[in-house]
Design goal:
It is a single chain. The chain is α/β, with parallel strands linked by helices. Among the domains are: 213 residues, Rossmann fold; 105 residues, Transcription Regulator spoIIAA. Helices cover 33% and strands 14% of the residues. The chain has 17 helices and 17 strands. The strands form five sheets. The chain has a six-stranded mixed sheet. Helix 4 crosses helix 16, helix 10 runs parallel beside helix 12 and helix 12 runs parallel beside helix 13. The longest helix is centred in the last third of the chain and has 17 residues.
Length: 541
Amino acid sequence: MDIEKFLPYVKKPTRYIGQEWNSMVRSPKSPPRRIQGLVKFCLVFPDLYEIGMSNLGLQILYNILNKSENVVCERAFSPEYDMEEILRENNLPLFSIETKAPLNKFDIIGFNIQHELCYTNILNILDLAKIPLRSKERDGSLSEYPLIVAGGPACVNPLPIKDFIDAFVIGEGEDVILKITNYKLQISNKLELLKKLSEIPCIYVPSLHDGKKTIKKNTVDLETSDYPVSPIVPFLDVTQNRLNVEIMRGCSRACFFCQASKTYSPRRIRSKKKLLKIIKEGLISTGYDEVSLLSLSTSDYPYINELMDSVMEICLEKRVAVALPSLRCHPSSVDLAVKTRSFKKTSLTFAPEAGTERLRRKIGKFITDDEILKTTEYAFKSGWRLIKLYFMVGLPTETDEDIEGIVSLVRNVKKQTPQLNLNITVSPFVPKPHTAFEREKFFNLSYFNEKKKYLKIKLRAEVKFHKPEMSLIEAVFAKGDERLNDVLEAAYKNGCRFDQWNERFLYEKWCNAFFKCGINPDDYLKEITDSRSLSWDFIQL
């Protein structure tokens, strides 16, 4: 496809041109349908390029697929409104950014689903690609339409979007992805291919599932699994514009509300030797001026001090900054952060989650008020002037005293260090499947709006409050069942997309979709009694 003539009319053309440093175009002159003896795979991230290119999972799978002799892998993202309008006005399909091939000419499309609020973007991508939305409308030979697969954290309850996806990978996909492509090489009939995929323990095929068979999460060995040492370097300034290095997967803390700790369990680490090799080679191959050490709780890496000393030795020599994006609220975390300040001074972020020690114990967040006060004071004495604190409201057993506890805690921090600037972020609690709180209720909108108003009045620090209506839709689809597939399609056809963006979220159109389908969203927000089975019980994490 020739898209260059349209690029002057879009806001950020570098979202669509490809050809970035370390990107791979293995066969630019290949026919659009199929390269003989190879599987054409398109990794699709259902959000803008800037968000998708910051996702480590996409970089990992892109690297693995393109290393295979049997696969050509390309990428696609949700187009911005300006590009979408151009495609629709000119009756053009959505395309990959490597070779500008129409998505409907690939053999397999793989969606990376990070959260429930990107579901409408998935439908929009299929529609723009001129691919029928529902899996049953794509039956028969795979020569007409690609196989649609999906993986990612939001797939641990796939029921609300199951009608649109042919197969889901539950858990980690580093090794499974090549099994899928190998089977595709051998089988051209869609039904036969899906039957073969359904034999893999971690793959859920909705059209063939009997509702009883257990789908078991897949996990990989971090030390031996492939990791990209030459990740793609975007032309555009993306959300995470740095060398991202995953040092550990899983979390030993296992807070009761946290789905990620269950999804990525058990905790596994990469050795110091392998991490230093990844960092050295990654810096050479990218030219980045910052390295980020990633995990759910970076400060809990067993040899973090020893690792940091070695990392800083490399980075000081190359004048490269180091970021630690996930630190426990403890003075020892400040000591770690101090080591990173040679070239770049950033804010510190801690997540007490709840305002009182009682409620923090209830949710498995074992941090005392004294620890929070000592940590923030120590951070100030160590040179930090801005600290971000994250809280949730609507937690199980929450009372007015717990909300007042947020106010008291913030005031005590300010009283202790008046010159310290605080940014406070408050989010509604969303009960998630496969957590200790999966049966809990989601508090109503009036509750959240009341608490939002109260906290904004009481706290003079800057307070950001996540939009409760967005959290409501997230909660419905997190705990939803197959009836929501119709609601999702109705909302998409109403114009909903980019639902995770405040300025684009259309709550009234979502309400209309529920009404049109005769479904009351409150049915999914209530507490689930112990006597009721859970619709996602067939998924085993």
